## 1
Amino acid sequence: MAIFRERLRERGLKPAAQRDNVALTFFKLGRPISAEKLYVEVKKVNPYAGQATVYRTLRLLKECELVYERYFSDGKGRYEIVNDKDPRHQFICDRCGRIIEFQNARLERISFAVARELGVLLGRQKIELYGTCPRCLKEERRHSPAIRFFRRPHTKTRAPAY
Ligand SMILES: [Zn+2]
């Protein structure tokens, strides 16, 4: 948030309460979110906030390179915090679009090995996995009980619960 304020100052933009509400809500959530959903969250903090402010603030955050927008198979854009120090990979559910972020040191080591083989210098890392999320799997199993779950192995993958 402090960096955002600093970047705005560099651009000669004055602080604005609504814009701050939007940015703060976004940073606090700390997960990829669509503009529409962010608007709903901002409304809880400031019922007077307008949708245009949400879009404008997201655009500003993007211009300040603090946020980036990505499009998924459902055609919707989601905004994410740019975070270089802490690589976060994603599992994206093909069915419901849910995103599960995770970290896995082994995957990151493999990325470095691949980069070495390619003869490239590795910058930011982001690995995307696609498939069916646990929630959709459960739903599916309810309809066709024959489908078995994969047993969860002992895991080194850290995924925040939300
Ligand atoms: Zn799903």
## 2
Amino acid sequence: MSALTRRATEADLDRVMELERAVFSVDSWPESLMRAELTDEHGYYLVAVDQDAEIPHPRGEGTAERPRAAGAAQTLLPRGEGTTGPDCTPGEKSALLPRGEGTTPDCPALLGYAGLRAPRGGSQADVQTIAVAPEVRGWGLGRGLMHALIAETGRRSIPELFLEVRADNAVALALYRSLGFVEISVRRRYYNDGGAAIVMRLQVPATRMQLAGSDRPGETRS
Ligand SMILES: CC(C)(COP(=O)(O)OP(=O)(O)OC[C@H]1O[C@@H](n2cnc3c(N)ncnc32)[C@H](O)[C@@H]1OP(=O)(O)O)[C@@H](O)C(=O)NCCC(=O)NCCS
């Protein structure tokens, strides 16, 4: 299968919520909040999808969109293996598997999503959320999504990017630290179960700011 990222639309809401609930459980956002996020004028949400599953979309609901042209759809896997990730192993079919038509068997239709709130002209942006389907973790999708959010922050000429992460989320912490985020404070009893959040900040690299408008890795514009 091939993974690509594109801008999320409201038509992705069902699949995003399915993954949101599976990944975040009691901390998952209500659908109304997610819809507002996907349509927020200051937002920037991406979905990572199985390119082979995007079309055809038989019900015509518009969730799927063929890449505009060969080369316009880049994949999200940043480790230099080109555009194709490993096949999902037969038997790993999960409840996340969609809807039949047009999807690659044994792989989730929605591989991941990530969102940014970045008001143009503002001085700060926030990573709102990021999730990768359990079946495809460790492929580099999370890193690719984060790179795309950082790049968009730069394109909007916003110098600082913030996020909150559970203090016990070692995988996410490792990812963020490796991208240059630094811990700036702790919010105790922040989550529903009483868990603490670590607040992290990234000074958006000058190169990102200089490249503003010039790089859109892995994205097919909607
Ligand atoms: C955090 C998450 C998005 C990472 O996505 P992913 O696609 O698996 O991540 P990647 O494959 O791009 O790996 C990125 C980095 O994460 C860290 N990482 C990934 N898997 C890891 C593991 N099993 N153990 C430790 N670190 C790990 C590493 O730092 C890795 O970088 P490296 O491969 O260069 O060592 C994913 O684990 C996820 O969806 N988790 C549940 C939701 C969540 O916690 N979201 C963050 C909320 S703040």
